[in-house]
Design goal:
- This protein is mainly α and 77 residues long.
- It has one domain: lambda repressor-like DNA-binding domains (434 Repressor (Amino-terminal Domain)), CATH 1.10.260.
- The protein has five helices and no strands.
- The longest helix is centred in the N-terminal third of the chain and has 12 residues.
């Protein structure tokens, strides 16, 4: 299971997707991933997405991997 700063990845991904106003299908298209991958992550079925998948998601949102998982710099926390 991939944990974010204060939420699990599936919650963080859903939060970012909804903030962008995207459906799961739209996120899949923007990230170059299948709809099934997105739904499995958001449902918590895919517990450990590959680094390539995580990079595609971060790129789709225009954020860093750290931002995707909600990681903050210890100096700025």
């Amino acid at each position: 299971m991939v944990y974010c700063q204060d939420k699990m990845l599936e919650q963080r991904l859903r939060q970012l997707r909804k903030k962008a106003g995207w459906s799961q299908q739209k996120l899949a298209e923007k990230a170059g991933l299948s709809y099934n991958v997105i739904t499995k992550i958001e449902q918590g079925v895919a517990k450990r997405p590959s680094i390539q998948t995580m990079m595609k998601l971060a790129d789709a949102f225009g954020i860093s991997l750290d931002d995707l998982v909600g990681r903050r710099n210890k100096n700025n926390a």
